[in-house]
From TrEMBL:
Full protein name: OSBL5 protein
Molecular function via GO: lipid binding
Gene: Osbpl5
Coiled-coil ranges from the UniProt annotation: none
SUPFAM superfamilies according to UniProt: Oxysterol-binding protein-like (SSF144000)
Positions with biased composition (Polar residues): 167-188
Any Pfam family hit: Oxysterol_BP
Amino acid sequence: DGEVHMNELKNGNTEMFWNPTSEVRRQRLKRHIVLFEEQMDFESERLWQHVTSAINKGDQHKATQEKFVLEEEQRNAARERRETGTEWKPLLFRHDAGTNEWHYKYEDLRPWDPLNDIAQFEKDGILQTMERHLSTRMSNHKATCINNQITRHKRSAKDCRRRKTSDQPSNHSQNTESSCSTPESVQELSDDDGKYLGFESLCAQCGKEMNHLKEIHSAVLSLQKAQQDIHR
């Protein structure tokens, strides 16, 4: 959000490459960070504080020294683990033996969906995305509940028709109106359809998660509005 210049080495001329307006600066996304006093010893801002301070002061020699101190401590810790046979088990990263690279366990590489994704946040080192729609797990669980109820309803209706038919003479069975009926199509059912057909309410887990989602939704209304303003 500051000025950027291009220096031409051949003739020594300097040209303005980027100079953001006040409007551009106002629209930049707000950076959320953990307060320094709340960070643990190995979190980046606290761990590299002396290196950062030296860089900001323009003291490259001091920055290099502080960086060496950190790296030497890491080497000593690794040496001690080897000598004691202690296995190193990272909490947030996994090692790919094929490429000899470390990868973040909870990486989410899918494109950002502005219509569904509300915000991405970190909790206990795990990146999570808050979405507007029901999660896949919630949707699948809800669909399973409804499908189970549809199956029970169809089975009950079939048994009812079978009993009704057995009570009528064979030559009148086609003209007899049964007190039981099944819907012509049960492939697309809304919650209201389920109530109309006499389905029981969703299970306790569904109800609990629905209430939880409502609380989340009300808590992020202001965030949604701010995001919409940014998109505009």
